[in-house]
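User: Predict the full complex structure for these chains.
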Amino acid sequence: MKFFKHTAIAAGLLLSTSMAYAQDVTLQFWDNQQTESGLSGFQKAAVDRFMAENPSIKIEVTTVPYPEYQQRLLTAVQGGNPPDIATLDQIWVGAFAQAGAVEDLTEEAKAAGLTRDQFFGGAWDSAVFNGGLYGIPFNVDVWQFSFYNKALLDAAGVDPESLKTFDGLKQAAEKMTGDGKFGVGLFGHKGEDTVVVVNSFIFSNGGKVLAEDGSCALDEAPAVEALSYLQDLSKFAPEGILNASSGDMRELFLNGSLAIEFWPALEQPTLQKSNIDWGFVNGTAPEGKTAIGTYGGWNLAVFQSSKNKEAAWKFVEFLVREDVNGDVVDLLPANKAAAGPFLAKNRDGADRIMSHLDNAAPRPLSARYLEIADLQMRLYQDVFSGKDVASSAAEACKAIDALN
Amino acid sequence: MTHKDRWLLWLFLAPTLLLIAVFLYYPMIGTVFESFRDTSFINPTPRFVGFEIYEKILASRDFHEILRNSIIWTLGVVILQNLLGFAAAVLLNQGLPMQGVLRAVVLMPFILPGVVTAILWRFMYDPQLGLINSLMMRFGFFEDGAAWLASSSTAMAAVIFVAIWKGFPFSMLIYLAALQNVDQSQVEAATLDGAGPVRRLFDVTIPAIKDVILVNIVLTLILTFNYFDIVWVLTRGGPQNATHIFPTKIFETGFGQFRFGEAATYGVFSIIVLAIFVALYVIVQKSASNRRPVA
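Assistant: Here is the predicted structure of the two-chain assembly.
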């Protein structure tokens, strides 16, 4: 009798301990906010839903403003105190994977039936590093769409369709520049927005940043031609290109003095609220070619140091689910099935956006991407300042190749 | 001092010394140590490389640009900020009407946080929408707006101007306090001897506050060399590295590109320069106290 009593007490204790443990799984999730879209509120609702579906897991969300996010995350990793799950910019995945900071999720994705064709291909590829899958695409967008001011185009007699070609864009920009108005919102400050826009012109002209073997391809003919084209086009951009950002161009576009601005689809909510009569085309390419944009976006990563990897994966799986992904992003859902309804509800020209996303190319998948991008920025600033394109590209390639 | 007193002395000093050691010297020594190791985020296992990173940095184009920029930036800001601060202090020491209000108005830029100052001036310098160009064009200096922060020939001057605008009230405040302590009987004696305002300034006032001037210059040297926020928000060190100085380079290399070893090496170069400034400060302070009459 005594034995049974003791066994029952022990079993009860064990059960209560395991229940208490199950209740105690708390996950730290870090994300950043790029827009004033009320995203935190939507994310909170989704997190509540997850916790209702999984009562044993508690999620604590930390939303960090975009400009501080990289530094905060890096400091946390270096200090040995990263969150369990975080959104990683596509361009950081290589470095975080190489550093051993994030988990390879290949097996988990396979077991959960998550595959590349359920997501935008380029976004999925941005999470692949040395054969491993170090993140699950969370949200995406593509640089760039050419947003135009219909009134300025009409006044200059410019057909919006002509903006799709290199020649058409240049002629339109020339026509619309003057009397305090600017044809095209090119910008060249030190920032990733500069890199992605210039890349898209290079990609659309058949060029690459890195060749298949990892060597620099910016000094090859298609890239040099695209850069020369942009140098020429910059004559029709507002003064101060070397310190101007996409945000500065937005101000000019919204006050009606800029005819064309380059932004991802993320710009649409701002334009929808403005008084500007606007439209857009999918980037710009040489005659007869299709414009290829540059992918931007974020992947969900699980950190190596997480003590609750299983629960963390559950949360990742939840966030990219078709019925959830569209509610928790301020760019576009990376899950293609979620992207369709999201675009139909929130963006104009959903089909065109989908096709531009399908065509887009990611930035180089390298652990040293940030150093490569720094050298690219330097090259692009040299180009916009009027330096010889071929020799500047050769110099940049020499420096990029020296990184390997 | 007895043995017990000595123990008590060290006991009371211990918390402060511990805090200084942990929060000041440990990171500083750690930075020096880090500069000898090839460490980056993607290569978390450090490899001792001796002076390899130093050699690489000294041979790079970036280092020479940053050194040149740092010298121009520091000297430009320190000289002009002190001249303007001194002139403002002399003016505000004349017993003008509404002196209190004037002092408060002049102090305003100093109170503003650096980031707010930089954002404000980014708007002012905007080539299309900025007040500076608008005024310049209205008064016929330019036909089109100039891109002050986007041209490598004007960006450094534009950034220096903002730093002076923010920093001169600090210098003014110190000079004003010093001017109010100048022995008025000497000024009156010089006036009776026929000395005009300029003569009185150079022969009586400046010698009387010479030590304060020196301390102020050395202090502003240290503060200016370490400036980060204004430059980073205005230009991020651009265009084409034209305004990159040591603090912006350290931040960009460490936190922008995850290259900690290289960032630490730039940090060591910074420490060396700052150590020279601090030594200067100590020498100036010491000579000033030696000259101070015993009460």
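The domain at 145-292+371-402 of chain A is CATH 3.40.190.10 (D-Maltodextrin-Binding Protein; domain 2).
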